[in-house]
Design a protein that fits this description.
Layout lengths: L4 H29 L24 H16 L7 H27 L4 H25 L4
Keywords: Membrane, Transmembrane, Transmembrane helix
Length: 140
């Protein structure tokens, strides 16, 4: 296994920014269908709490971990960039979104929009993460 630091950094930072933007857009779009305030969800910290700044680091952490996983499994993905990106997106969706939504829905009373926003972020954001990793890691 060879980890390419340059590809890792590029895909991690670019993926983090894209995932952050997509999560904001998904949340904004969801507000038209089922409005809610993330800061009124039980257990959420106040926006004025300094620790809340770390909440916005999550997309970058996710993108860097996804970039590491891509580099580990890239030999098992199809040669075609689009196919590899979609397959990787599907893997991420199944490993992250499905169990998260299951646990949240079955154990927490969160607004419907919260679930929809999370699903949209996965449906739109994970193919973008897959594409970025395919783009910045062309060779196997």
């Amino acid at each position: 296994m060879h980890i390419n630091p340059r590809s890792l950094m590029t895909a991690g930072f670019a993926g983090g920014f894209i995932l952050l933007i997509i999560s904001f857009v998904a949340d904004f779009a969801t507000q038209f269908v089922t409005p809610y305030s993330i800061f009124e969800v039980p257990g959420m910290r106040s926006i004025s709490d300094p620790v809340m700044m770390l909440y916005f680091v999550y997309p970058f952490i996710f993108a860097f971990i996804a970039a590491i996983i891509w580099q580990i499994i890239r030999g098992s993905l199809p040669e075609n960039q689009k196919s590899a990106a979609w397959q990787f997106a599907g893997i991420l969706f199944i490993l992250v979104i499905v169990p998260n939504i299951w646990v949240m829905y079955t154990s927490m009373l969160y607004p419907t929009g919260f679930y929809i926003s999370n699903i949209l972020t996965g449906v739109i954001g994970y193919p973008a993460i897959g594409y970025l990793n395919a783009r910045f890691n062309r060779g196997k």
